[in-house]
Design a protein that fits this description.
Blueprint lengths: L7 E4 L4 E11 L11 E7 L6 E6 L6 E3 L2 E7 L2 E10 L7 E8 L2 E9 L6 E7 L7 H12 L4 E4 L10 H7 L1 H4 E6 L3 E3 L6 E3 L20 H4 L19 H11 L2 H4 L3 E5 L2 E5 L11 H12 L5 E5 L21 H6 L4 E4 L5 E4 L2 E5 L19 E5 L15 E5 L30 E5 L4 E8 L2 E8 L4 E8 L1
Parallel strand pairs: 10-11, 11-14, 16-17, 17-18, 18-22
Antiparallel strand pairs: 1-2, 2-3, 3-7, 4-5, 4-8, 6-7, 8-9, 10-24, 12-13, 15-16, 19-22, 19-23, 20-21, 24-25, 25-26
This protein binds fe (ii) ion (FE2).
């Protein structure tokens, strides 16, 4: 039955056509506050439709947008993906759009463009698209918060990031007609999703075995301001499928794995943290530094999937992103948002200096896994209310968006978070909540940032306030 949820059927007199994914908006290639656009995307089965897209500041002032049609031949399955770029939008503005099939409107929705005002409100969660009751509850609670955008910290869909999984475990929850705690919500038609790429999102990079793999690149349209690094996502398998995939996706693959954008007074840099990357790559390091330096935003946030600072038992050894802590510190990063570990964790503000090898580079995986030893400096005076000027970066794990929770026995039990030795773990975690699924919300206004964590019923689990 779940397969059918959220799927709209439209019967035409001449042909039967199935709209597999209703129109939704994406951020498009708009990163700084100099240019704004959105992209409308939807998908049908193999029966091509005569679609048109109109948009404007009010339904009385609609202008037409071009529709691009792309045929996807995914093994034995033929699907059609439609994209329509809404270019040159004004900032801080409501827009309406309508997608029409022949003469019948199939979507009429409203969205807000990015803000140039010194404020923001957005929701963050990760490890979500698994097709669970918790995924629906989190989607619904996120919807009630009326966020300006949603940021996913990776593992958008399970188990391998295939088209078939998005149709079953993703769109029926985040891109549906109605809202409810047992259903999900109509989020994506009005609220742009920005997504980091997790390990499950690249789990079907072998297009020979999985012809509908790497679907992240079909369904999302994100800023393309990040370079393509030497170590990045690689599509493998049958050469003809890889060639076709590359042709269809164009420059979005693999460039979309790293990008940044501004919204209000926040600058967010999304990184690919999968094991294929090289955290010591000088190009990656200088891109992060320059990206932060060039931003005038008050608040600087980095989002990626694999946490460097994690006190859970799950994925404890996968710490390679710790090596970038000094880069983040000298780039003025305030907060790092991660997923991968399916619970919620908040660190004290901290500085971390990794142990170096003989060439002066951070030493990663000396034990054959991903451990990074080093020296911690932890600001335990910060309490997020009275003492709210952190000395160091606060690291958040917010990977409780729907997939099975990890280490539930550790929830709110600091005595059970201990790892050894001291050069690898210090008591840097303030909160670890693993008894419930949850999501984060960040609100900024001028020099003040509030981060809150909510459970599946909307109860507040944690709250901190930061001030500059
Ligand atoms: Fe993961």
């Amino acid at each position: 039955m779940r397969l059918l949820i959220g799927i709209l059927l439209f019967h035409l007199s001449s042909s039967a056509q199935q709209i597999l994914v209703s129109p939704y908006i994406q951020p498009g290639n708009a990163s700084t506050l100099d240019y704004e656009e959105k992209v409308v995307i939807w998908q049908t089965d193999n029966v091509a439709g005569q679609f048109s897209v109109e948009y404007g500041k009010s339904p009385n002032q609609y202008i037409s947008a071009e529709v691009q049609t792309t045929h996807l031949h995914l093994g034995g399955r033929h699907l059609i993906l439609y994209r329509s770029v809404l270019p040159k939008l004004e900032f801080d503005q409501s827009y309406y759009y309508r997608v029409t099939l022949m003469t019948k409107p199939i979507m009429e929705a409203k969205f807000e463009t990015r803000s140039r005002k010194p404020s923001s409100r957005f929701v963050i969660f990760g490890d979500c698209g698994v097709g669970s009751p918790a995924e629906a509850e989190i989607a619904y609670q996120a919807y009630l918060k009326k966020p300006e955008f949603i940021l996913i910290t990776g593992d958008n869909v399970y188990s391998r990031g295939q088209v078939s999984e998005y149709l079953q475990n993703y769109f029926p929850y985040y891109n549906r007609e109605d809202a409810g705690p047992d259903k999900g919500a109509p989020l994506m038609r009005s609220i742009p999703f920005y997504l980091s790429i997790g390990n499950h999102d690249v789990g079907a990079a072998d297009l020979g075995r999985f012809p509908d793999g790497l679907a992240y690149y079909y369904y999302f349209d994100l800023p393309l301001n990040g370079p393509v690094f030497k170590n990045t996502v690689v599509a493998t398998g049958r050469a003809d499928r890889v060639d076709t995939f590359r042709q269809v996706i164009g420059s979005r693959f693999p460039g979309m794995a790293n990008f940044s954008f501004d919204h209000g007074n926040v600058h967010i840099t999304c990184l690919d943290s999968n094991p294929h990357i090289n955290v010591n790559d000088p190009e990656l390091i200088s891109w992060i530094e320059n990206d932060m330096k060039n931003s005038k935003a008050t608040w600087k946030i980095v989002a990626f999937h694999h946490p460097g600072f994690n006190s859970s038992n799950a994925h404890y050894e996968g710490q390679w992103m710790r090596a970038l802590a000094p880069v983040f510190e000298r780039s003025g990063v305030d907060l790092v948002l991660n997923g991968h570990v399916h619970n919620y964790q908040r660190s004290y503000p901290l500085h971390f200096e990794p142990k170096k090898d003989s060439t002066g580079k951070p030493l990663i995986g000396a034990n054959g896994r991903g451990r990074v030893d080093g020296v911690f400096k932890i600001d335990k005076k910060f309490d997020g209310s009275k003492k709210n000027e952190p000395d160091g970066i606060i690291y958040i794990v917010t990977g409780a968006g729907g997939a099975r929770l990890y280490d539930t026995a550790l929830s709110e039990k600091p005595e059970r978070w201990v790892h050894t030795p001291a050069e690898n773990w210090m008591p840097f975690t303030v909160k670890l909540i693993s008894r419930t699924h949850s999501f984060s919300m960040i609100e900024t206004k001028n020099d003040r940032l509030i981060l809150r964590q909510f459970d599946t019923k909307g109860n507040e689990l944690d709250k901190i306030e930061l001030e500059k």
